[in-house]
Amino acid sequence: MTAQGGDLLTWITDAITKADQNADRWHHAECSWHATTVVDLIVLHGGGTLCDCEGPATMRRGCAADRKLLAIHQKNGYGSYCTICTGEESFDDDSDGNREFSRPAMPFPCDTILALAEGYGWTEGER
Q1: Structural domains of the chain, count
Q2: pLDDT averaged over the chain?
Q3: Backbone φ, ψ for residue 79 (5° rounding)
Q4: How far apart are the C-alpha atoms of 78 and 5, rounded to whole Å?
Q5: Does the residue 118 lie in any domain?
Q6: Is 64 inside a domain boundary?
Q7: In a domain, 85, yes or no
Q8: How far apart are CA 12 and CA 67, in angstroms?
Q9: Which domain holds residue 46?
């Protein structure tokens, strides 16, 4: 897979969907039990959890936030720049002495999309 542009967005969307769908499974596998009494230990012996970390809800909120980032960091109409990210401002004087302002568009995928992908396990080797 080439993980540039649209393919990378598809990859991230799939990864977010998988994380969202597996939020409960992640919680049971990763979260330690927070038992406080012998009764708690007996109840938990059946495979349940007594936990105050809100693991599945926290994971789903993170997935929702990541989807929002994807929604605003899209390709522009030309297909090669991010719609929201820009480079550093620069000023130039034209031949008449008028100051011109410019702020170049950032190439797509932008740093935000790349960082988001890395958070879901994408590596440079997949580019």
Answers
A1: 1
A2: 76
A3: 85, 0
A4: 12
A5: yes
A6: yes
A7: no
A8: 9
A9: 5-71+108-126
Composition of the chain by helix, strand, coil, percent to 5: 50, 15, 35
Say which residues have a Cβ less than 8 Å from residue 40's Cβ, sequence separation at least 6: 50
pLDDT category of residue 3 using cuts at 50, 70 and 90: very low
Helix crossing, 111-119 with 55-72: angle to 10°? Answer: 150
3-state SS, residue 47: coil
Cα angle 37, 42, 47; round to 5 = 120
CB-based contacts of 49: which residues, under 8 Å, 6+ apart? 27, 28, 31, 33
119 found inside a domain:
yes
Chain segment 49-75, per-residue pLDDT in tens: 555 566 778 888 899 999 999 999 988
Burial profile 57-91: b = 16 or more Cβ within 10 angstroms, e = fewer: eebbeebeebeeeeeebebeeeeebbeebeeeeee
